[in-house]
Amino acid sequence: MNGHDDAAADRTAFGGADGSAGARRSIAATPTAEHGYRIRAAQHHDQGCEPKSRLNIDTHTSSHPRPRGGCAVHRGGHPDAGPWFRLLDRDRRLLSILAEHKVLTTDQIAALEFTSTRRAQDRLRKLREMGMLFAFRESLYGGGTSQTRHALGYLGARLIAAQRADKPPAPGAHALMLERLACSPTLAHRLGVNDFFCALAAHRNPARHRGTAHPDPVAGLTQWWSERQCTDCFRLDLYSGETIRLRPDGYGCWEQHDRTVRFFLEYDTGTESLTTLTGKIAVYQRFPTDEFGILLFSLHSSRRETALRAALHRAMPGHLPSVTIATMARDYAHPCGPAGPIWALWTFHDDTVTQRVRLGDLPERGPRIAHHTETGPPYNEAAFDANDRHVRAILDSNRARAGVTHLTASSDPSEQTIVETDS
Questions:
Q1: Compositional bias (Polar residues) at which positions (predicted)?
Q2: How far apart are CA 68 and CA 73, in angstroms?
Q3: 307-321 pLDDT per residue, tens
Q4: Number of other residues whose CB lies within 10 A of the CB of residue 236
Q5: Which of 270-274, 315-319, 412-416 has the highest mean pLDDT?
Q6: Which residues make beta-bridge pairs with 256?
């Protein structure tokens, strides 16, 4: 077992999102994966299989040779269903999450579905051997590697496509997607955003509540939308032809003690200027943001948080914003992670932090939705459909102020009932 991942078993899921322990250098062509499996620059396929693709796992231990002239296909022409039926419910949940949120570290997956990192490593190894997952790491300056990152393998992507009745990806296209993901300059930011939500979702980990009387099985994180889902949903087309499109890093719903807090997340890594951060407020103010949730800023340090709050005060002196804003610094740690008392509301009266509260104690905003069964990724029992008449009514009430023509969404409608709307 890799020493880095073994040591990671003692860490919480919401620490070190990118798994790095120091400055990084470029991804090596053949970094070593855990348990001795090597990520190679080229994948060998049997003759008659799909074309060669890069960035895949070579296990060197295949004990089930594929039939000649085909890729795990029976003589009758139908695919080998063995891998599908070897999947557990938690495996399918994991594949569904990765299909939407793209990449997770070993610790993040352990926080979602396992009782320990060691157990997660054992199962993830088997999923890689089955072709369901693809894993990669980065080498670090001074030696060592980052924690293993996991994405959908080709067979996993085919399974998700089959569940959604979509056309399966081409092998070459999927390999190119994995290359771009592994080499993306925004990978650390994406992992950080996912770490934020995984730390919240960990409070509902079914493995840790198994055999116990959990008071409310769906209390905690009940909506987790990616940036893509937010961009598709939170869109306003004005009469002038202009489109207002929110691009938060994520959108979530936290339910605790009969309170429902919906929020937009802006995850800061310190690379953007304060002017850029405060400039995002203008877009949120043009959109009826407060009808859908509050705005959370997760800052990488207390110094950055202080600077942002002061910048907001300068940008909006004596002006009451139409958006409820709360900030936190990630170096202000708490055992409960983002759900703990680490949030400070921002007001135009004073930019200093006088009190920190729990996520569940922040102001309630947005629609309250009766929990429903959803076929998409987990942690979306309270997700709303933007085409729902109640949601559209919220936007219609803002038509005169914002000049809204309609709200568009790409998500499929689901059966749900909006109980009430807080504003």
A1: 407-423
A2: 9
A3: 999 999 888 876 677
A4: 22
A5: 270-274
A6: 259
